[in-house]
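Q: Structure tokens for this one, please.
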Amino acid sequence: QVQLAESGGGLVQPGGSLRLSCAASGFTFSSYAITWARQAPGKQRELVASISRLGITTYADSVKGRFTISRDNAKKTVYLQMNGLRPEDTAVYYCNVGMMSGVYWGQGTQVTVSS
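A: Here is the predicted structure, written as tokens:
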């Protein structure tokens, strides 16, 4: 059974940092790309960053230079290091994996950037 579990969210002041984790189980982790997405209140879910099975990364323009996605295949975990956080980064952050059988999502972790 494919499972993804996000953690690491919280309340942080503008300019601060957080590191999110996405722990995976139930599939061959090293064979799949993993994506982080976020959804702010009243807005559509948007892609934040993704990392391929080979470690190739892509980012939304809004987070380039501030966020870094990485993976540890031994721990079956993908990380999202978020620096220089802004109030507009406030959202629920989700990780997902796409397979032939469908797209699987975690339950999300709340990130709130506020003074």
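A few notes: The chain has a mean pLDDT of 97. The two ends are 40 Å apart (CA to CA).
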